[in-house]
Specification:
By secondary structure, this protein is α/β, with parallel strands linked by helices. It contains 13 helices and 13 strands.
Amino acid sequence: MAERLAIEAGAPVCSELLSYGRQNIEEPDVWAVAEVLRSDWLTTGPKVREFEKAFGRFVGVGQAVALSSGTAALHAAMHALGVGPGDEVIVPTLTFVASANCVLYQGATPVFADVDAQTLLLDTNDVKRKITPKTKAIIAVDYAGHPCDYDGLRNLAASHGAILIADACHSLGASYKGRAVGTLADLNVFSFHPVKAMTTGEGGVVTTESAELGDRLRRFRNHGISGDHFEREQNGSWFYEMIDLGYNYRITDIQCALGLSQLRRLPEWVVRRQAIAYRYDQAFADLPAVQLQAVRPEVCHAYHLYVIRLDSTNLSADRARVFTALRAEGIGVNVHYLPVHLHPYYRRRFGTGPGLCPKAEAAYEEILSLPIFPSMRDEDVENVIEALWKVISAYAIEPRRAAIGHTR
Ligand SMILES: *Cc1c(COP(=O)(O)O)cnc(C)c1O
């Protein structure tokens, strides 16, 4: 006799809701922040530089420019490349809205490309179909932490005079053909929002090998002004000029002290995420009506998200029902993402709608993100496994042969 689902008044697997992601803050992080609070510089001081250096070393890249958020970092990247009115920028539609909004901030036009049905990553073939002489840049999003087809995209961009940008907000710590994320595109963008691989509260970084782009990024985050307050203090100079129109996208020393402290533990966190993903892969291999994401052999996946796909043809419940049933079990599942071209703003402004990116639209109806974060206990991981088996078993029309008599 199957266990009664929590959604049908049964006992939940978890008594408290387990969120899909969360930060990891320990005492050294608190000390690092407190130390800055007692110092002379709260913002635009030595910690910003120290963090940028450490982050650049971690990734293995010449320039790392830290900003107030991943979104500010994307905007700065667009500006540094000179993206503007009349330009088109190709963006995968299955992403967070910020990946496309940054194109609008610069007055350019986002062109939505579809994703590969197996990996849910930007489909190089669809980019090929959508690239035009107006394409200034391609934004590759390493969805869930899985690096994109960088060789394919780079060749395609180069042959059309377009620039490749990595929205690597999910993939810090991942690699592609042995090369670290952060070195794979002309500009690479990271986010330090609390659900991401490491946090500064809010924050972001752009990495590049180009010193010239690095200068443009630094100016952009500080109103378009040459040099910063720290530099002037060091030189004993008051003089500055505004070269471009920039913003106040500065990150604080308080945040960068936290970033430095977090960065030290990042490698072990990535390993922990991979171990959780490996456990899920094993546990769900025989689960009926659930398809796991394909991972390309040439990548090392950072698992910001662990995404499963429901086989709706083999379920008596839709995704919304499965979502609610899992939440009732205390599992904080989520959906990443409503395709950007289906958001009301984009529909209204660009007339986009269903049919534009059919693979992403179909995926959207069936995807679920399971909890994955480094401080998850093994017990939490097992609870997620138990809850997913419980809920899916209740709704699967045809159990897979291997699932019959399944015991854990
Ligand atoms: C988190 C995220 C961003 C934006 O980062 P913020 O730091 O929250 O501004 C951009 N793109 C993707 C894919 C993200 O996941």
